């Protein structure tokens, strides 16, 4: 790979990406464009502008954007239509944010004539894969620079030396090593590393930043109603809201009630196991609610089909294949099933859990006339069940007869 | 089907199966053998003996058995190895008990020379299917009598008239219609029908019988440790216990902390949707713990494979195909993956939820040496990731190049 | 089910459906509408009109339609996009025709004010299921009459007596029992029953009606080129043709070269095994060609995904669930993958087989620059493979290390 | 990776692996052990011994083994139990041989105290992945040397120079570049590269080495019978034969009749498409026969399950994951289904194709009593079908009713 001439960097404004910024300038002598996105991580973005300028980035090369609505509408919600969880439990909060960032990096590269993009993910994790697969899928000629895989700043000491040497300001609380590493966006906060590295040791309480402790959460349950249209949440307690606003509100509710904590050991795409603490307050409520509305509006054929392909869909997102033909084909399937997933779910929020307690819909497939224990006025002929069972049993009888004969 | 001569009836001792007993005698003039099983439903069995005798059953035709260990060891535990849930949430508590009952019915029929078995399930539900498919799979020549599909006792009034006419004692509290229908065993209690028939109306509190209300559950979390061997729970807090004892203890713990409540609308095999309230206190803890131990002992290849076939496995159990070649083939796959699923999980029980907080194992695949944020002493070469990503990206680049060319 | 007042009958003009027509009139005293479709079965339709009139059907109640283009464009081609085969080998020729017939029956019922439809399939086969599921899916209030399951004309003798009694003309060659039963349409001819009922006995030569014997087929191979657009065949040897015309031409080519014979034992949906002789001359060529064009235009992610869901898709069609949400969701997935399946395949037709021998496309993903054994000018860096393998191996090494430790 | 001290090389005795042998000696100064296996590739092995000795390998370091029975019994047959084909058509002939070679390389390394193994696969193909994943899975501490990824002998000229420089004899016909590259074993011969690199150009006739041209094959069909036990072929025409003998005989038969040619473009694991000509004469017959015997002995539940996981199983083998927990778990499933796959298949071999024409078994599930068009003496009650259909339709009716209401 020839040296890059102009690089678009995913820039947070923090110490690490500031070091990367400077390293790109010094290592490659290249022009740097910064992209700082508000994905709902809960940090001010404007300080990143000042810092980028201080590090010599031209004003026209500083991109700062609020992408929260794009994030929720075009990434989070499509994924939630699938009830996607990775390895049974993880709601893919980090995985789903990476493709959006790469998409904007590539678009900005094309707009600014840059030939490369750069990210601050390490060589051990999944995020490097997600950033790079997305970038290459969107622009097969783009170069991707992953400084953590290239440089020799392999210890905290070397990083700080590099920062000092290049006049990068170091906040006092960044001198020492953080006790764990954090990623956050509107969907979740993840924590991993250092104090969390032994999965046999309980996580310290101070790791949790996004949710209140269930033990100190309110002693009274709170009930809410979430409205859905075609599989996407559109309202809370009857109030129509934009996608990002809905997720923000659900995050607040989830935080209050201590909902969405997960202590998890997962299999990374790069081959090792890793332990993370995930907090997904709003997403956990949303998943429960989406399942609740599907219960009455989705037929079993579609539902079982969705369930059977979900693990593969979740694995694709986890592994970084959001922008792949197979994810898009699966999405076509999933979206097709959501045509009538419209209605309202009532949930109880209490001490760490969200539970569906009622659901209704004009699109409901639930037929009290059929299921009732009372007289069903002929809606269902119980005698049909005998034929149904007999033909389902025919194969089993033939097997049993054969097995008895040959044994 | 010719008339049965001798029938083994799944007999609870309650009013409904007593009516069936008498109806079999009067309708077919046949000898009746009763089978009453302790599956952990929490009822005394001996009253069933007296009642059967009173209804004219010969002592040698009364079978009363404690099958709890068989139930947990050979049905519940194999199913939990798969992390089986139906439609995302239901732990299959009713489904998994039916095959065992049918197996004993058929065995007793063979032992007593009976040519038929009978059950008390209605023609609208899944249980008839489960009872009958299991019976036919085990003995293709057996007859199965399902009185609810045959007789004309189609209302409570008619049933009570029949009972009075045949001197079947009616407990006072059985005169009126029960507000909902209940099934229970060591794994769960289900409630459905009548007051629960509108899924848009919250379930009344009095429906819950097996778990305390999370709101009144203890204000302090309780921590327990569950030991596993080859995928099955073998100990609680270091104490080795039999399968049924483990589930019993977990049920007590789950009850206390209000764990395992589920308000659910599901798709029945017979084609309609149905709403049920499920309480699975111990099973909910067990599922969480099993996932926890798999997190460190199961590799991603086996784990993702299991996840992908789980919905089909769960559907087979739900639909009544426990005794089918395909369920057995899937079980062979699942059991093969459990060879090293051995170790200990620590869980927090609190206010309705069980959460894994730590896990350890001599069989762990978790490698702190590889994953650490610290110096890994060469365990992992970050440069490998570049090649890994490049080859995973090659296909995506070729696609992007093609698409750009033809668009 | 109350008695039907007006019935639309799938009417071939043959003896059996004429008997059904008369039986409907006499049994139910109802008005009958006939629907006779040209699906490419190779029979004249106009005699059916005369016969229907003779049996008392009003002219305005006689529907005769050429549905071949609809059949190929909207049923056969979508199915071939999936490379659908049932149980590894069967191209679903009968299964795919039934939904179309039911759709027209229901539409004609709605147009003529009929409250029922009727078909001539027996109670043992799959076709009854396919006709009826399709009808109910399209009109949940329609009645379906299946005379073979209702009447007592259970022998050839009784049928002929009924025909004579009602002045239904009996062709001389219909007096005796046919040696096997046949179904045909533009996609295939199936033969089953009687002389074919022992799967251990070779089929007699005279069963084959649609394909020449490979042994007497031309001694020289013939080469053809099939053009595809978005997964559908659009031309033969450069000549653009309509869907039905393409299939007709391929049938002629396949017939000449003895292509598409299959001696098969399959599992019916109703639970028994059945042996059939299938002849699918054009379809067999088409399947091979479609696979050939996908080889260069479809990426592995989409391709493997399609392959993995194909058995379920084929099973749905076989079982009669064409008009189901899950088939439509799978179709959405499949169609999404076909966006670039455009190009040309060259095939060799010879003595019973069609083989792809070359394929090319403007949409090809094949990159000679990457794959070449010659100097690839840096298109591919072989060193990437080391990292790719190392990370794919990491998991396996950790497993091996663990297993060695605990054994 | 530190330099290897002693290397076990997969050695064919040909020019390329002789160059590798010498390169290992000169590059690393290490001791070399050669392993030459008879996998049925049809070459004499003893010349490899002389050549190895000439290149300075100690006699005790030369391993020459006939592994054909091991290959067929423990690799080919288990794979055929699954009816495994990659991307619809490829019988995995190369893929399945690699794990066995790696296993012996690792075992010999352990026996001789070698710390590394080496193979002659290039950095572009799948074989490097297969060799290395297998080796690492069996011995996580082994080093694997892949000279083609390491050295700079990047052209034919350089290779020949190296050979001459190191006194490696060069057969006259090896001076020029071969027109294509070949791999062979008892299951198949593959050809790829150079003259085959344009998939739009027909393969020259001279590429085919393992099968006669169908056009010149015998004009008369030949009929054979293959006996199976538990899914494996055990006899031909009634003669019990060892696994390798059976495959050898089937290869002879297939060769004569021109069976098993495949012109294919596939997706390599490393991300590019590749065109190969495969000849699998015996394997093609065996696959057809295995499907034939499963048709009557395997029930639909097991069969459909097998079909649905087959693509994943085939992909695992193709990608080199034979020695992985997930392949072994899938194998457990597959083997479980083969318990009764015992019986005999009759096939017609003719002009390029093998077709099942009859099959019989003591373990047959085919019931003429049930399927017959004649009177079935009550084996099957056609009225059952009405109930079966009604309950399968119930869901579809509820959907149709809902959709009509909301549209």
From TrEMBL, chains A, B, C, D:
Q: How does it assemble?
A: Homotetramer.
Q: Which residue ranges does the record assign to the Arginosuccinate synthase C-terminal domain?
A: 180-398
Binding locations of ATP: 10-18, 37, 120
Q: What is this protein called?
A: Argininosuccinate synthase
- Sequence ranges assigned to domain Arginosuccinate synthase-like N-terminal in this UniProt record: 6-169
Gene giving rise to this polypeptide: argG
Q: Which UniProt keywords apply?
A: Amino-acid biosynthesis, Arginine biosynthesis, ATP-binding, Cytoplasm, Ligase, Nucleotide-binding
Q: Which family, according to UniProt?
A: Belongs to the argininosuccinate synthase family. Type 1 subfamily.
Question: Which transformation does this protein catalyse, written as a reaction?
Answer: L-citrulline + L-aspartate + ATP = 2-(N(omega)-L-arginino)succinate + AMP + diphosphate + H(+)
Q: Which organism is it from?
A: Acidimangrovimonas pyrenivorans
Q: Which domain of life is it from?
A: Bacteria
> Which molecular function GO terms apply here?
argininosuccinate synthase activity
The entry marks the following residues as binding L-aspartate, namely 122, 126-127
Binding residues for L-citrulline, per the UniProt record? 90, 95, 126, 130, 181, 190, 266, 278
């Amino acid at each position: 790979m020839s040296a890059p001439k102009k690089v678009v960097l995913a820039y947070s404004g923090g110490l690490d990406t500031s070091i990367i910024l400077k390293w790109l300038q010094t290592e490659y002598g290249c022009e740097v464009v910064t992209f700082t996105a508000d994905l709902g991580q809960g940090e001010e973005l404007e300080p990143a502008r000042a810092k980028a300028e201080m590090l010599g980035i031209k004003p026209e090369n500083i991109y700062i954007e609020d992408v929260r609505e794009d994030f929720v509408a075009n990434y989070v919600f499509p994924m939630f239509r699938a009830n996607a969880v990775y390895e049974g439990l993880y709601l893919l909060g980090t995985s789903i944010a990476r493709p959006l960032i790469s998409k904007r990096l590539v678009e900005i590269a094309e707009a600014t004539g840059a030939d490369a993009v750069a990210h601050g993910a390490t060589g051990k994790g999944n995020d490097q894969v997600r950033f790079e697969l997305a970038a290459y899928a969107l622009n097969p000629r783009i170069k991707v620079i992953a400084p953590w895989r290239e440089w020799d700043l392999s210890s905290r000491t070397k990083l700080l030396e590099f920062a000092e040497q290049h006049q990068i300001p170091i906040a006092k609380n960044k001198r020492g090593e953080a006790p764990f590493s954090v990623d956050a966006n509107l969907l979740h906060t993840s924590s991993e590393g250092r104090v969390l590295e032994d999965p046999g040791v309980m996580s310290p309480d101070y790791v949790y930043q996004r949710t209140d402790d269930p033990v100190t959460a309110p002693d009274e349950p709170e009930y809410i109603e979430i409205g859905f249209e075609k599989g996407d949440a559109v309202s809370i307690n009857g109030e129509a809201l934009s996608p990002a606003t809905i997720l923000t509100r659900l995050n607040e509710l989830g935080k209050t009630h201590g909902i969405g904590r997960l202590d998890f050991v997962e299999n990374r795409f790069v081959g090792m196991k890793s332990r993370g603490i995930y907090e997904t307050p709003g997403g956990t409520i949303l998943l429960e609610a989406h399942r609740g509305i599907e219960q009455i509006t989705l037929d079993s054929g579609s539902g079982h089909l969705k369930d059977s392909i979900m693990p593969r869909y979740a694995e694709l997102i986890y592994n970084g294949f959001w922008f792949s033909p197979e994810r898009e084909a699966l999405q076509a399937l999933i979206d097709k099933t959501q045509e009538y997933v419209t209605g309202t779910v009532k949930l109880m929020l209490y001490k760490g859990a969200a539970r569906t307690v009622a659901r209704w819909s004009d699109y409901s497939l639930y037929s009290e006339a059929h299921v009732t224990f009372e007289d069903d006025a002929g809606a269902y002929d119980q005698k049909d069940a005998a034929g149904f069972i007999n033909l389902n049993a025919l194969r089993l009888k033939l097997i049993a007869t054969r097995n008895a004969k040959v044994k």
